[in-house]
């Protein structure tokens, strides 16, 4: 490009290329190669378009291609790598200088201005469209626009001169939050972030344009909206500065539709108006709920409906990966739905996003089944329906001879075929119980998802020998309360490591499943380890007769009567001479002793913790005196006899061995936590005079649990009676009865009286009379205890 | 390993194999001395014979000895019992006398067959014993059979059930053989502390 003396080039330090229509880095590459020492480079007023990668090294042609991001994936990948940005939408100023029902592009001029500057007007009119995209270019290019183009733009400014198809009057000021007009950014002076934005936008629609294959400014069609996909991302520039070039269109009449996949700034009305201008009958809107897979279809639809003041009918509700989609046809509904965004909260109290976008007709509506086919299908299905079992066998439907005969191609894999089938089922066989879809080459069960509405009573489903690849597909028919399911012959079956994982995963989907692949499942509840039950505990155990039971009870009553009294010395009569007693508080060594048990702690004999044999012996109270002495030192107690649970372990003629569980409280301490629980093990022996004596007594103390505390002392104690009937011989009993009848006292008192007088009948009588005259015998003594 | 083993002295080897005899002489060592027992038996060495009176409570020395013996037996027993219960459940009934009785949360199980059945149906367990106490039982009650009362407390978790605190008491009787004393369970009483709510 530049010829120069090579030798001089070598020493070049400063190069001024001002206003030279340099637009390609490559052009400079020669220079760079030849003049490596250039330190000052002036490239102002050129046609440099891409400043992103200004590197003064070689730029190879490949890089040119690489730098041009072509497919949407490339573009978005590239954009994703760029630093995170925060655009200030309220600062935006945008110019739309031309717009048809779908906007067209204006792009820069071609390089070197060789491109015919003919008839820009022509270019605009023919400008093709990418729906709802916005055109931006950089200032530099603008400045270099040919005069005719500039003139055109001026022309555009004045309303009257606008071409017919220009419909910018229709644009309201609705969509943008701020309602500003937007202006695209100023090229040179903007900071890095905006440059990037600008670059990317250029990159977005740069595409083949740069090579200017067309005449004038015709632009090749950018990516049109694919099926259900949304429009490409357009990034919006951010530059508060207003351009010098007064290409700004009237502020109040222009707003921009910023149509991005992730922003919900669409105004459906406008879309519709535009469309209606073009003659479209009705527009479809696609409603997207990100993470919609989490939600149940009915729930989400109902929630949306409840928040939305316009009623709508969701069409073709389906899940796509994580998202839930459905279509609505009504503009007003779409508008209202837009407002539902972020208003719904799910069970985890997270916002549910709802996005509404324009879309093409939902596919399923496109290809409706022809009536002839429908009729034949109905007939076929009727043939395959078994009324007695309420079972419909659609095995290998595509190979059905009737259908084949008529050359009707029905594949249940296809959404609309499946939809038609389900429709027939719902009209003709609404009570369907069993559905066989074996061998239908089903890859997915999207179409079957409506079965929960169309045929809700299906209990048996056969999906064997299809092409289902994952259990996720089954989730689409989760609403069915299946009892029997066949899945064998599907690729998904081999994805499980073993049979039980397979079964349990399926059971998660259909918890009430009874049979899978023909095999009975163990129980509908869970396959897994069933918790083995242990024998139910029961209250008390008396191996023997009532007599023993009474014996024990009597003993306990007597014992605790004395124990709870102020003076425990009375216990001396109950203990054997050489009895043993020890007391333990079960504690982990690390745990501190609860304060309520402090007083018992010094006597606590836990062999696990105490290893010193001397101490072990010392803590075991040996003779009855030692025992009673140590017991007397313990705090005063009040036992709740109603809480007692007794286990009788051994009963021989010499030994009575039982243990008692119960609660008591300390009388001195009134704090609520002072209910203590005990387990006391007694070994009693009967000596010659047939009295029972304690030979071994072991006491375990602990704090009572909540339950125990609550139920303690709930029943008032019965009047204690002090006798132990067992110890009375026959003779003594007779005496007692006599006394009782004669004195009028009850049995207990009679017994007491006799006991006090050592069973001397005469003496007892004398004492009684004496006391009676003195009035010392309380009236209760004469009460008969029931 | 083999090499190591061959380095053992004769005495060691003997000791390893014949500990039972070796320890018989050491009746009065501290509790850390090993009380010999076969896997499913609780065995303690014989006490030195004193005067053949049945009244073992005659002197305090004897009493102390008795207490020691009881303590040792109790400790070993508790270790074996709960380990067997947790890990070798089938062998558990070998620790019981033929006519032993188990009262389990109030349910009476009596006789070895019933015990076998019971322990089979009982889910696998994980016992943690926190407390142990024991007393020698006065011979008056036991017709001169040396008996020890063992009381334990702790926590247990049965498979599939929640953890419970439990109290358990045993009556162990000694069956003396010429060489040693084998202790067996005459009675076993087990109860959850919160049995009412389980």
TrEMBL record, chain B:
Superkingdom to which the source organism belongs: Eukaryota
Residue span, NTF2 domain: 73-192
Stretches of the chain forming a coiled coil according to its record: none
PROSITE patterns hit by this protein: NTF2_DOMAIN (PS50177)
Pfam assignment, any one: NTF2
Location of this chain's protein in the cell: Nucleus
InterPro entries: NTF2, NTF2-like_dom_sf, NTF2_dom, Nuclear_transport_factor_2_euk
Gene Ontology cellular-component annotations: cytosol; nuclear RNA export factor complex; nucleoplasm; perinuclear region of cytoplasm
Keywords recorded for this protein, A-Z: Nucleus, Protein transport, Transport
Protein's GO biological process: nucleocytoplasmic transport; protein transport
UniProt keyword annotation of Oxidoreductase present: no
Protein transport found in the keyword field: yes
PANTHER family: NUCLEAR TRANSPORT FACTOR 2
Name of this protein: Nuclear transport factor 2 like export factor 2
Annotated source species: Cebus imitator
